[in-house]
Amino acid sequence: MKRALISLAFALTALGAASTASAQGADDHSNWLKPVKPYRVVGNIYYVGSEGLPAWLITSSQGHIVLDGGQSAEGGKLIERAIQQLGFQLADVKILINTHAHYDHAGGLAVLKADTGAKLWASRLDRPALEAGHHIGGNSNGPTPFPAVKVDKAFGDGQKLRLGENALVAHLTPGHSIGCTTWTMPVTEKGRPLNVTFNCSMSVAGNQLVGNKEHRNIVADYRATFATMRSLPTDVMLPSHEQQGDLTAKRERMLRGDANAFIDPTELGRLTDRYEANFEKELARQEAAAGKPAR
Ligand SMILES: [Zn+2]
How far from 63 is each of 68, 281, 287, CA to CA, in Å? Predict the structure, then answer.
């Protein structure tokens, strides 16, 4: 009996370890609505997301930009509280932008737009999904709905966004969503110029890679995106999921006095290598299952 209890305890410990490991994974959503203390990252860029889902506030003397809206209306409200906690006014948020039209990054945009009066900018190809309020394109997770939101300005690749002292550039990096957008901007941190990249997701995340009727060139899009990501000079990589950039660990290092915790010019390249390998593996799997090549 005692031995059975010990082995049961051991099994539970092993189970606990396994669930801790999966808590680091992309499929764990438990921290997507968990508030964390907002903070300045570099230059005039602030973290205003939840523990698991980043959102970024980019401030200027002429008003502010918010990048990504969190998950659901509740996620949008969490971002609003973070902005206010930093001492900024919601009414000074003038422009909302979005990495991609998925519920976990676009679900709070409608509430943010209503509460700030800001204009929403989105890529031309993600616009229909934002305005319909669901993912567009074949995906094994289904359409994953979210509150629909009206886009005020739709743009293509290379769009510049200037507000006050800020100059951002939109790079279309489709694949994960059909209009996935990676934003870049220069900042100065203690006199040091740094290139910041807000990279869109590169994971397959249930996307149908073979015979996707609404996203026909999805395979070519992913491959072009890997090349684009490698071409962007990036000192500071700020991704749309916490675990893609180990943001919590970096924040802890920053709190312990490491002023360069967020600076790593090789990180985006390494992340791209990882996602490209995952993509090719998943493509091969889907092609084998379908009994035909993607194109
Ligand atoms: Zn996504």
Answer: 17, 44, 48
Query: How many Cβ atoms from other residues are within 10 Å of residue 265's Cβ?
Result: 13
Tell whether the model's pLDDT for residue 22 goes beyond 60: no
In the chain, where the domains are located? 33-290
Nearest C-alpha neighbor of 106 from the set 92, 93, 123: 123
Closest CA to 78 of 44, 119, 107, 117: 107
Which tokens belong to 21? Answer: 């490991």
CATH number of 33-290: 3.60.15.10
For the stretch 187-190, contacts whose Cβ atoms lie closer than 8 Å and that sit 24 or more positions apart, written own/partner, are 187/42, 187/43, 187/44, 187/45, 187/236, 188/43, 189/42, 189/43, 190/259
Rounded to the nearest angstrom, the distance between the alpha carbon of 100 and the centre of ligand 1 is 6
Instruction: Report how far ligand 1's centroid is from the alpha carbon of 202 (Å).
Output: 8
Looking at residue 30, its pLDDT comes to 87
- pLDDT for 27: 57
pLDDT per residue as tens digits for the range 154-167: 999 999 999 999 99
| CA-to-CA separations, 249 to 60, 71, 164, 252, 281, in angstroms, rounded | 27, 22, 31, 5, 29
Q: How many angstroms does the Cα of residue 141 sit away from the middle of ligand 1?
A: 11
Q: What is the mean pLDDT of residues 71-81?
A: 96
Q: What are phi and psi of 20, to 5 degrees?
A: -65, -40
**103 CA from centroid of ligand 1 (Å):** 8
What distance in angstroms lies between residue 106's CA and the mean position of ligand 1's atoms? 9
Query: Rounded mean pLDDT of 63-92?
Result: 97
Single pTM value for the model: 0.90
